[in-house]
Amino acid sequence: MFELRGAREEERDQIAKIWHTSASLPDVGPPQMPSYEVLRARVDEELASGWSVTVAVAGGEIAGFVALRPAENYLAELFVSPSHLGCGLGKRLLDHAKSVMQDGFTLFTTTKNARARRFYEREGLTLERESLHPRAGHPITYYCWNGG
C-alpha cells in the first residue's frame, strides 16, 4: 500500500535518487544522462521556482514522485522507482496530477520511452506533438490531458 503526501525538505536526496535511477533505465532519460549530483541540484532549483512535489511512500521509503507546476498546467516529472514499476503507483501519481490540475495539463516524455507512452495513452492522455528536448536536444513527445 502506498501513501501519497507532500514531499518534505529532508527527502530531496531521495527524490533525486529515484529521478536519477529511473531516468537511467534504457530509453527513459536523455542519451547523455545527467549525474545524480546535477539532478540533486535541479531538485532544489525547481522547488525554489515553483515545483509542487507529491511523493508515494511504501514501507517508510519513497517509491515514486510527481512534480507539478499547477499555475502552468504542467506535469514536470513523474518517476517510479524501478523496484515498484508495474504495481499501479504511476497511475496513482498521475491520478493525483489530474485531481490537482482538473482543467488539464501537458507533459513530455522521451520519444523512445515506449513504456511511458503506452501508459499515458492508456490513461487518457492525447499525443500532442513531437519536438526536441529543451535542454538535451533528444526527441521528445508531448502529451496533454484535457481535464474531466
TrEMBL record:
CDD domains: NAT_SF
The name this protein goes by in its record: GNAT family N-acetyltransferase
Transmembrane listed as a keyword: no
Keyword DNA damage set for record: no
EC number in record: 2.3.1.-
Molecular function GO labels: acyltransferase activity
InterPro entries (UniProt xref): Acyl_CoA_acyltransferase, GNAT_dom
Pfam families named in the record: Acetyltransf_1
Every N-acetyltransferase domain range: 2-147
SUPFAM superfamilies: Acyl-CoA N-acyltransferases (Nat) (SSF55729)
Alphabetical keyword list: Acyltransferase, Transferase
Domain of life: Bacteria
